[in-house]
Amino acid sequence: MPSLSRRTVLAGTAVAAALTALPAHAAEAKQPAYRWRTAVIGGTGFVTGILFHPTTPALAYARTDIGGAYRWDTRTARWTPLIDHLGWDDWNLLGVEAMAVDPVHPDRLYLALGAYSQSWAGNGAILRSEDRGSTWQRTDLTVKLGANEDGRGAGERLLVDPCDSDILWLGTRHDGLLKSTDSGATWAQASGFPPAPTASGQGVTLLVAAGRTLYAGWGDADGSSANLFRTTDGTTWEPVPGQPTGTAAKVPIRAAYDRHTRELYVTYANAPGPNGQSDGSVHKLATPTGVWTDVTPATPGGADTFGYGGVAVDARRPGTVVVSTNNRWSAVDTLYRTTDGGRSWASLKDTAVFDVSETPFLKWGGDEPKFGWWIQAVAIDPYDSRHVLYGTGATLYGTRDLTHWAPQIRGLEETSVRRLISPPAGEAHLISGSGDIGVMYHERLTASPSRGMATNPVFGTATGLAQAAARPSYVVRTGWGDHGNGAFSQDGGRTWAPFAAQPGLAKDAPGPIAANADGSVLLWSFVHWDGTKYPAHRSADNGATWSEVPSFPKGATPVADPADPTLFYAYDTDSGNVYASTDGGLTFGRRADGLPAGDNQFHLVAAPGRSGDLWLSAKWNGLYRSTDGGASFSKVASCRASYTLGFGKAADGSDYPAIYQVGSTGSSTAVYRSDDEAKSWVRINDDAHQWGYIGDAITGDPRVYGRVYLATNGRGIQYGEPA
After folding, report:
1. Which of 40, 287, 379, 530 is the least buried, fewest Cβ under 10 Å from its Cβ?
2. Which residues fall within 8 angstroms of residue 221, CB to CB, at 6 or more apart?
3. What is the pLDDT of residues 51-72, one digit of tens each?
4. Are 361 and 43 in contact (CB under 8 A)?
């Protein structure tokens, strides 16, 4: 299993400043009609929750940690994204902390949104829908949620009261228990909930109804004090008597109620997960008698350490329950199933047959798929006992016979995308570099890449991706990996070979890379995950040997001139200075200075086919252009803000490539196209297609006018074409 990094955490005051609204000064041109679709990979992120509606057949929802929520469409056998309308200013709300349905009103759906609870992130919000998520009403909260933090696979933390559909409960991480008496429109602190809110920790981990009694898990207990509470009147809460204690029952992760046997099943771990769990257990409570029974399928111990995560009861078969292990790396995670109330269990992994032909990346560069990891979401279809789903850190598996499993993931895309290339020739119109799943060669946009993750070597997260402009068959990539951190391709990205050698910095600080126009020189920059910057290195023999380039600004992204192989450029975000090399990257000298500075979110891009034509996206400072190889820059008057920029095929009658950017020409941050060298812009996305944070990469297609590829932080690769 490759080592995994989780998604981009947009931290710090610089990001907060980037997302601050600025005064508008430019009018936006009339918006053309665009059709937006998602390039198919298939999942790739952590599915943190699955919820079947208990009284409506084939109605199900899924939530993710950074990629929004989805509704299952049984007619098309696809997941429909529900919150793509959330835009730039609401990037934090693409993380779904919890979801809830109303058993009495099947069209009602509630989402609790908010990815981070740190000071630099905005407060959470509640979305409520009367039409299964087609339209929404929104309530902004005064508290923060943490859908991409530890414990994100626990829950659900949102619950419709079984006695009154107008009453909702929301468990928070740091602010205790909230209650709404008007279907989620307004919220207030719930009275009588015993544990005091904490400044750090997990707070409420789960809410579940067992008949008319409500239960709440508390994740901040020390293993000896109560961590499960209940109320029978919605006002007075008390610790559940006789509940399990100790390390293996420190944190209640999830709970499910068997209404036939009137038993509540609770999974526990010694940490909230998904990482860090090494002990856990499963217990059931006979609610009429108050008797607890330890029904743990397998006890963690020795080298086989893990916790327990998901739990689901079969609505049609009393005593039939499925639970999941989590963070079990030695023996690999599994689902356990019982048909006798936990007296005996069978591991479904032991008989599982997997078919990942629709999403080949799930082989992770090997021959066989894994059962999965980070399994904290499990669901059984209440109308089909053999239809079981479980979420992992990369996909959502389903079965109809408890033996044959395949990704049930169509339509659900959660990739955090970092790099995009659209080659000017060859089979593929797109090559991507992403978090967790490395680099992919997209032969088709409507099917998951047949080669899966680029191998030889396999990377977890891609940090660099570049193509030789005059030799497009030559592509290089860099990233985080256990068996090498750089590779090259001689066939346009279909197959790869590792660099024969790599600098010592590469393993702990792989950064962006550039190839000059003919592919004869490589420049590799090094940046540690904590932001520490190191000297760049140069290779003139395809990565066989490397030498340090002391004059290159540390940590900068190297940019190759697309026409002249002797020229490289770099933008030093610390100083606001542009540097250039005229000797193939051996030495760099300072050119323009006094440009905006402050962090590493600026993007310097070279216009294709032209020497010395450089564009600098300077975030809220706007857009700058140089036509003299970086000696001087002029500010582009049409842009209020520019976050990332790329080029595509020119419009008919134009001799300059179409320009695409994420930025603002007026009041809104959006996706724009210019066909006249940035003299004017048209917005090409719409209010239904915004996808939160989209500031990392954008590129047009050099062969298809109007087609643009957009990197998102959690909604995969979006591509648009004129309708």
Report:
1. 530
2. 195, 227, 250, 251
3. 999 999 999 999 999 999 999 9
4. no
- Active-site hit among 90, 175, 436, 613: 436
All domains in the chain, ordered by first residue = 241-356 (no CATH), 416-550 (2.130.10.10)
CB-side exposure of 692: number of CA atoms within 13 Å? Answer: 30
DSSP 169-217: EEE-SSS-EEEESSTTSS-EEPTT--SPP-SSS--EEEEEEETTEEEEE
Q: Is 65 a catalytic residue?
A: yes
- The type of residue at 108 is R
Lookup result for tokens 């393993």: 507
Query: Residue 29 pLDDT more than 70?
Result: no
**Paired tokens of 689:** 């297609």
- Tens of pLDDT, residue by residue over 256-290, are 999 999 999 999 999 999 999 999 999 999 999 99
In whole angstroms, give the CA distance from residue 144 to residue 284: 32
Please report the pLDDT score of residue 371 as a whole number: 86
What is the distance between the alpha carbons of residues 536 and 534, in angstroms, rounded to a whole number?
6
| Res. 81: pLDDT tops 80 | yes
Element (H, E) at 671: strand 670-674
Asked if residues 534 and 528 have their Cβ atoms less than 8 Å apart, the reply is yes
0.90 exceeded by the pTM? yes
pLDDT digits over 115-148, tens only?
999 999 999 999 999 999 999 999 999 999 999 9
CB 39 within 8 A of CB 430: yes
Active site includes 564? no
Q: Which residue has the tokens 């509470």?
A: 229
Catalytic residue among 65, 161, 381, 572: 65
- The answer to whether 265 and 228 are in contact (CB under 8 A) is no
